[in-house]
Design brief:
274 residues; alpha/beta; Rossmann fold; DNA polymerase, domain 1; eight-stranded mixed sheet; 12 helices; globular
Length: 274
């Protein structure tokens, strides 16, 4: 099994309990703190556990590096874990004032603050619209540029206040006015869609015949990529789509974990060897 987003090891632990000593879990994550947490969670499993600080866009190289022939199950949970949202160094949340960083992998050079303070107004508006699907992106970009003329925007609190002013503080149901702007910046900083496309493109070559790929997405941009990839591979005779419609959380699951309301799980099965 490859857990492309091992996080704190929750999914790998559940699957690992089903594997015997002959089984192997390769867990990847760009967040070194998550790797450290996963090591503690998974240390007593009977199966072989390999944890690598790596981006899942490089899944083919990681599988080759650890001499894994073919993969029977590839899982990618694209959600941001609660610990990352609460981490004051990450700057992923506007629930408290944090440095405007947003990097999952701290070795990356560009932060959200770099983009907010250096991108011109048009590019900023385009980014917020493309990755956040925010209709008011031009107005938000205009407010950001106007504010940074007086002082640089360094914290999540500053940015959230600016977006709220641009939108008149209007909430969209349960969605905070700054949610889409923050999503857009996080995606841009971490190249999330490009990395997801790379994972999807490389998956067929590493999957064994009969092997499964499962992806949990949390917004329409991710889900669209997964849906289109599975459909194209099914058309080409590479995959059989297991979930004709994405699996979503039931009411009890959402009550226990409100963030699960956005989750969509799609699964496909590899039909034959290359």
């Amino acid at each position: 099994m490859v857990d492309a987003t091992v996080g704190h090891g929750g999914h790998s632990y559940l699957f690992g309990k089903k594997l015997g000593p002959e089984g192997t879990i390769l867990g990847l994550d760009v967040d070194e703190k998550s790797i450290q947490r996963a090591q503690l969670v998974l240390k007593d499993l009977a199966c072989r556990v390999i944890l690598a600080h790596a981006n899942f866009a490089d899944v083919d190289r990681q599988v080759l590096k650890y001499a894994i022939d073919k993969v029977d199950f590839l899982l990618a949970d694209l959600g941001v874990c609660s610990a990352q949202l609460a981490d004051a160094e990450r700057g992923l949340s506007f629930q408290q004032d944090m440095p405007l960083d947003m990097r999952f992998d701290q070795s990356r050079k560009t932060t959200a603050a770099d983009i907010i303070n250096k991108a011109d107004e048009k590019n900023l508006a385009d980014l917020i619209y493309k990755y956040g699907e925010e209709r008011a992106s031009r107005r938000i970009a205009r407010f950001i540029v106007r504010h940074r003329r007086d002082e640089p925007i360094k914290t999540t609190g500053q940015l959230a206040d600016i977006v709220c002013r641009a939108l008149g503080g209007k909430r969209r149901g349960r969605i905070h006015p700054a949610t889409r702007t923050f999503q857009a910046l996080r995606i841009a900083v971490n190249d999330e869609l490009e990395n997801l496309q790379a994972l999807l493109t490389k998956a067929p070559a590493i999957l064994a015949a009969g092997g499964y790929i499962a992806v949990i997405s949390f917004h329409s941009l991710e889900d669209r990529l997964v849906k289109n990839d599975f459909r194209q591979n099914a058309k080409n005779g590479v995959y059989e789509i297991v979930t004709k419609k994405p699996l979503v959380s039931c009411r009890e699951e959402i009550k226990a974990n409100p963030r699960a309301r956005s989750a969509k799980l799609r699964i496909a099965r590899k039909l034959k060897e290359d």
